[in-house]
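User: Design a sequence. Structure:
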């Protein structure tokens, strides 16, 4: 393992695996620069084919405590990242039937910490760990910017807009659009209230689908998939099939999230509050109201430019649900 020599105390430390001591200089420098500019970064780990190449770790970060005497430091730091990449590739396979492209970015946030996994190229990933929950967005933005720069300028590949188009604004919605909705509550007042909330936020432009679950059971699900604005989106996978696939994905996540919590255990023991699965054509979001009870909302956009905007819209929708009856 190669370490920084005589670096300033505040400088991020490079932990480099023996096989990566040559040929990785540009990537190491990109990660070091990103970590130095973003104080919320605990570490940035680069992996190729699920092997840890190097980690850039904040100088003040305390090493993970699950090391064995013979473990190399870069392997210990990169172990959660390696396991997260494996989880991401499994989730990518589960989402392929949606026909929305590869899973290229995952953001998992708890109250005390967060992790972001980005696909740089096929088989090549960067995982960023944040020191706080609120700092996860700063780490996410920093990694998105770095990945885009490396893809477009270093590898001369296309800009996939991870996290959506920077600076894009949430549009004002005009008249109500027809939604397909299913509300499963015996409380007629709650049903009316939920239908009104969906009409104010679900639309064909950014947040096209939203579902509200209590105890992992659907209470209200509605979408704008049948709007003419989205006609070209469902040429390969029909609207009906896509709805079923999103429902199935939610139930698949009920077990996958147990694995994700275990992966993140060296980083945080807090329950997940937010999960973003960013594919090449849009994203799926899960936001928890009560993790212990299994109360959460799922949102979907099928427009990549609108990924950040759609999550903002989902947050607005959640703001209206929180005061309601439980």
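Assistant: Done.
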């Amino acid at each position: 393992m190669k370490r920084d020599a005589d670096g300033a105390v505040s400088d991020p430390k490079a932990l480099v695996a023996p096989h990566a001591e040559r040929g990785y200089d540009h990537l190491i420098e990109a990660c070091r620069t990103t970590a130095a500019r973003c104080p919320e970064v605990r570490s940035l780990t680069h992996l190729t084919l699920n092997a840890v190449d190097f980690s850039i770790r904040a100088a003040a970060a305390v090493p993970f405590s699950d090391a064995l005497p013979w473990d190399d430091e870069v392997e210990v730091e990169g172990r959660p990242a390696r396991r997260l990449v494996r989880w991401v590739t499994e989730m990518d396979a589960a989402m392929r039937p949606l026909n929305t492209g590869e899973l290229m970015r995952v953001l998992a946030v708890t109250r005390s910490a967060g992790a972001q996994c980005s696909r740089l190229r096929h088989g090549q990933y960067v995982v960023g760990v944040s020191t706080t929950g609120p700092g996860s967005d700063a780490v996410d933005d920093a990694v998105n910017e770095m990945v885009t720069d490396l893809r477009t300028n270093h590898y001369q590949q296309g800009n996939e807009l991870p996290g959506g188009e920077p600076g894009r604004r949430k549009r004002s919605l005009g008249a109500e659009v027809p939604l397909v909705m299913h509300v499963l509550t015996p409380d007629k007042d709650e049903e009316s209230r939920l239908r009104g909330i969906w009409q104010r936020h679900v639309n064909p432009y950014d947040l096209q689908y939203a579902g509200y679950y209590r105890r992992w059971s659907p209470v209200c699900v509605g979408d704008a998939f049948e709007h003419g604005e989205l006609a070209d989106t469902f040429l390969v996978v029909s609207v009906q099939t896509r709805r079923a696939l999103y429902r199935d994905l939610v139930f698949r996540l009920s077990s996958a999230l147990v694995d994700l919590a275990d992966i993140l255990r060296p980083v945080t023991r807090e329950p997940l509050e937010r999960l973003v699965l960013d594919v090449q054509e849009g994203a799926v979001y899960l936001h928890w109201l009560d993790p212990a009870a299994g109360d959460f909302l799922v949102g979907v956009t099928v427009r990549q430019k609108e990924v950040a905007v759609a999550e903002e819209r989902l947050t607005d929708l959640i703001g209206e649900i929180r005061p309601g009856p439980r």
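Residues 1-9 have pLDDT under 50 and may be disordered. The first helix runs from residue 25 to 37.
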